[in-house]
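Build the 3D complex.
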Amino acid sequence: MADTLKTLTCPACGKTMEKVFIPSQGINLDICTDGCGGIFFDNREFDKFDEKNEDVSEILKKIEGKTFAPVEENLTRVCPNCGAKMVKNSSSIKQTIQVDDCYACGGKFLDNAELIKIREEYENNEQRDEDILRYVYKNIGSELAEQEAKYANIGGRKTFVRSLFNKLTGL
Ligand SMILES: [Zn+2]
Ligand SMILES: [Zn+2]
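Done.
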């Protein structure tokens, strides 16, 4: 999906979100700079910022050192881009951080500070996925290992691993 240019309303606190252009990636992010400090990523945008070696300085400039309004993180949220109900998913097998995913448009909403915490979890996404696979094998066994081996390319494997994870955690 293309970068949305419309102004978004924060799904957590209802304030108008600020469009922040990220020159290094050539994309706009929506950040709730006047409210709760949440960040909305369009489909696939989050992949550009979730690993430690990826640059988030332009995002941090907007949120670091500021005090943001507290929000209720457990409420079901509505996607600010398409209006669908968002689904809470763990960012990893560690299950310490919950993010809001929109299955309709692929958007993702992170509460203030979650971006930093998610980046601290693993060195990179390969390690994140390996952790999921270890969990899967331990809990379901070799039958799925065979299926997984069929996915020769990284993209297909990644999608498969994530779908297993979502099924297992049931979040
Ligand atoms: Zn907000
Ligand atoms: Zn959506």
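The pocket of zinc ion (ligand 2) is lined by residues 79, 81-82, 84, 102, 104-105, 107 (CB under 6 Å).
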